[in-house]
Design goal:
The protein is mainly β. Helices cover 13% and strands 32% of the residues. It is globular.
Amino acid sequence: MTYEAGIAAGREERDLFLLEHYASPLPEEDQVGFEGLDYYPVDPAWRVRGTFTGHEPKKVQIPSTSGMDSPYTTVGVFDVGIGESTYQLVVVDDGDGGVFVPFRDGTSGTETYAGGRYVTVEAADTESAVLDFNTAHNPWCVYDEEFVCPLPPASNWITEPIPAGEKMYQRSQLR
């Protein structure tokens, strides 16, 4: 399977989950007529390698969509160059055995959710790791405001636009 086909398969799986799964964050009334999310075209250049530096899990307060800080566990930082800038992004434990980076970028609030998106850290058990922004996705609170989601800490605000992954969900994506 090619890289592009793998990304396309992952997107189909996510769309199907949102449409049919009992745990979908889409309210039932939005599942009727849901035709899938809007994504940026796949661009292998947005699969970026950086350095993951782990640290002992540390409880921190991170702003959330509830308007209050909520406790989350950070497990390290991901150093990466994007455009002309370098960033040291905070890596958060997802509670299910994986780690992710909540981030905002130059598309936040225009083409993507203003509160930011999430991207999984691949191979976080080694020093050299990957962020594949083609898999960047919206947090559940985009689909249903009853969900409380962590917002990216200021260190995870990327100035450059990252035209990869999911775009902003619009209810107009329904039939």
